[in-house]
Amino acid sequence: MSDKNKIALVTGGSKGIGYGVAKSLLQMGYKVAVTSRSQAAADKAADKLGDFGEIIGLEADVRSFDSQKRAVQKLLDKWGQLDVLVANAGIGNFGSVEDLTVEQWKDTIDTNLNGVFFSIKACVEALKKSKGYIITISSLAGTNFFAGGAAYNASKFGVTGFTQAVMLDLRDKGVKVSTIMPGSVATYFNDNEPSEEDAWKIQIEDIGELVGDLLKMNPRTLPSKIEVRPSQPPKK
Question: Is 19 a catalytic residue?
């Protein structure tokens, strides 16, 4: 099957890493669905990316399994199959455990960890049929803890471990599973506004390129966990 006949779903694809991944997949010939909590944001991203290939925007909240199931069903109703899931949607709430609110903790875990589980759970049967690929976006914070990172570290440590377990669960079903663990990326994450000062950081197209490289890998080989960081960060 050529890439032009393959279908990908990118959660949190309206901006940032998800947007960069969606663009890369479109350039490879994939048909792509991007999700956002806002239909307007999903549609805006789809409009901007439409010059690169066939794309749709779907409203979906990764914190809700039912919402994820509805989005996957809409994709299947339109294209009939699913070959790649990029579970990217995530948020950051940072602060000392003394200051972190229960609401911030819950929203971080619900989005970053439960959201990955719900996304995979909603897609797994379709991916088993297509012998597809699951790629989760974790973080270097998924193995490196830091002060003020209680909620974020917990969520990303969880994503890293969860993805590796899913890899073992599904590889005998013909489904490949990898997690990408970026360091500093020039995105809108945590209310950042990308600028020229972020030129040293990983760029969203770099993660898109990495996803493409994984999908091109010989089927006999599985890079299951990939750490990626800026090559020349500023000296502290």
Answer: no
CATH class of the region 3-228: alpha beta
Sheet containing strand 176-182, edge to edge, reads 55-59, 31-36, 7-10, 84-87, 133-137, 176-182, 225-228
* Residue 1 clears pLDDT 60, i.e. is over it: no
Q: Is 189 helix (H, G, I), strand (E, B) or coil?
A: helix
Q: Is the pLDDT of residue 194 over 90?
A: no
- For residue 17, what are the contacts with CB-CB under 8 A and spacing of at least 6? 88, 137, 182, 185, 187, 204, 207
Is the model's pLDDT at 189 over the cut of 70?
Answer: no
Non-local CB neighbours of 12 within 8 Å, separated by 6+ positions: 18, 35, 36, 62, 88, 89, 90
Q: Among 19, 30, 133, 152, which one carries the catalytic annotation?
A: 152
The pLDDT value given to residue 3: 77
Percent of the chain with pLDDT over 90: 89
Both tokens assigned to 145 = 């803890």
